[in-house]
Request: fold
Amino acid sequence: EDKVVQSPLSLVVHEGDTVTLNCSYEVTNFRSLLWYKQEKKAPTFLFMLTSSGIEKKSGRLSSILDKKELFSILNITATQTGDSAIYLCAVEAKGTSYGKLTFGQGTILTVHP
Amino acid sequence: NAGVTQTPKFQVLKTGQSMTLQCAQDMNHNSMYWYRQDPGMGLRLIYYSASEGTTDKGEVPNGYNVSRLNKREFSLRLESAAPSQTSVYFCASTEINTGELFFGEGSRLTVL
Reply:
């Protein structure tokens, strides 16, 4: 059974801080790892990682995958109150339909002014 | 361009009642999904439809049925609601050959 564990489960920081969110996984025949941000309603896509060691960046957010150690990290630099959200990590296995994701519990990030 | 639209957004049911959650997407995606989200458990896949005319069970299908009405629409039915089905339900869709899901805004269901 595929499994995704995120840590920490919740995190409170102040604006300007840098945060690192962790995601470890067990999956038979790995295809990809995805990060989503969920504010009040729908999760929105951030990154998809398929190759080890390649960093994906979008503004202040970046993510890297370690396929050997089976984990990924999501970094947010110079945090803003708008970064407050639940961050979800998910994995996808080869040999299954695309979009069949196994999600972690999520990390609740709160950024105070 | 609305993306993925779900109705209703909120619903309260009594145990044993039935209801259908509706989902429609206007992105011409082939694949559609129903996930549920519970506190501390992330999102779990209930059912999915890889293409029009096909449906398959996900991780937690018991107590649910689905219908892929056409390429745009994918509905989720609770035949006899139970308190354990109290949850937030998300419909999602994706293009061919990618796991990047586009989610609807969710439907919050409470079963008393």
